Amino acid sequence: MDIVVLVKMVPDTESRLEIVDGKVNESGFKYMVNPYDEFAVEQAVQFKEASGGKVTLLTLFSNDTSIDTDLRKMMAIGADEAIVLRQDGYRGDRPSANAKVISGAISEMNADLVIGGVQGIDYYQGATGPMIAQMLGIPHISGVTNLEMNGDKFTAKRQIEGGLQVIDCPGPVLITCQKDMTKVRFPALKDIMMSKRKPFENREVSLNEENDIQTNECSLPPARGGGVIIDGESAEEKVDKLIEKLKTEAKVL
Amino acid sequence: MSSIVVVGEVDGNEIKDVSQQVAAVAAGMGDVVGIVMGKNVAEAAMKLSTAKIIIAEDDSLENYDPIKFSSIVAQVVEQTSSTKVLMGATTMGKDLGPRLAAELNWGYLGDCLEAGDDGFVRPNFAGKVLAKSNPTSPVVASIRNNAYPAGESWSGTVENYSGNIPDSKLTTTSIEKVGAGDVELTEANIVVSGGRGLESPENYDEHIRPLANSLGAAAGASRAIVDAGWVPHSHQVGQTGKTVTPDLYIAIGISGAIQHLGGMSGSKIIVAINKDAEAPIFKVADYGIIGDLFEIVPVLKSKLGN
Hints:
heterodimer; A: alpha/beta; two-stranded antiparallel ribbon; 15 strands; 31% strand; B: alpha/beta; Rossmann fold; five-stranded parallel β-sheet; 28% strand
């Protein structure tokens, strides 16, 4: 079973978000592996451990930032190799263009399973995965909380409103992982040492234009002022005042 | 005026409220054609508030399948020469939207907060930044629940889908109901969320769930207690969980870490109950009660339960 894991580099959640001339100032951003993608790495490694094969990390990123340390951590979990598509002018908010480049790379790899996180915690569109599947002409299942492999067939439980949709599918298929899918291991020291010797390829790709809709202007959401603190002698008095305000002032009850 | 396709979703015998909201938004943008796909959905489909409704009914459409649904919508787009497809940002819409955009070779805007002739607004970085765009090329967009008032049902023209339905290798074998009867977080008008201030998972079950039930609300949670294993991730509100925009959000024993605020600060009214007067949650709350949640929540429940 050869598995391609889609790994996106996203700005650290602590990154300061500042708008300059209608654009997010990204100069101070530090990048990390998208947390949802870590579940995909762990799941892929578990499948490999159960039935053999190879786990390849595939990342598209800009060509001026080193991400070796971050991807070596994923290789310490058990991934066998990493391919980083380096693109001058890369942006994380172009799912269509990015899916085109990534699907091009995957089409040369003969993967039985393509797996990634359900969404990037930068732009939250959850778009790149399904787009790659469509471009490769394979099915996809998104938001999966549980994935099992039986021979060459997969059974996925996909989170839907009020429950789980249980879906069977033969490979090749593209899966995107929800947070509950699996628990990411802490690699042992020897695996961390081993990961340093695994193949790591940087591959230049050219900047491409696709159908993505450009953002014209970014802004910070209107700041919510702190509201009223409700005083009272007792819990009961506070609650009475609150309910009164919710009914007559806010009109939400 | 150009045509717009609205994908309507069915819940039992009704059209989902979010679909009616999307239909209302679309009505301001051009001629609207609704498409509803499923098994035995005709009755509900006719309630979709679009001028024209196309119904694709087939046993094989009983459960959502991205390959079949994407193909059907793409064929409707072609038949109607449409230049936009709008749908609710449900688990189906967020899955179907990007696949369909790739099939049509169009752009995609996911989980939009605003949509209209003067542009689309969608959240970046869990709503910490708003990104506005004015697409001039064809686009598929999914629109978040509660962003707009729902359109009213009216009698438009109805026809049956006449295109083909492709084969798919995906087979839905069952739907497992989880927390049957629970209100879905992203669809709820009221959300009651609990955090570490609850001190134990038992207290979540004793205080948060009953209050949510008595209000017909969804039960949410902070990342801290999801990571601690008190409640499943499906309850998590925040940057790595769900983004909610209810009319009323009640945060109980939640300090308000920035990653939580990202997921709920779009709520219309926020109430915070916390014993720490310095908790950041009070900076975004419309109404705050500083005090012991174990004293306040039971009173709140008994008064609201009636």
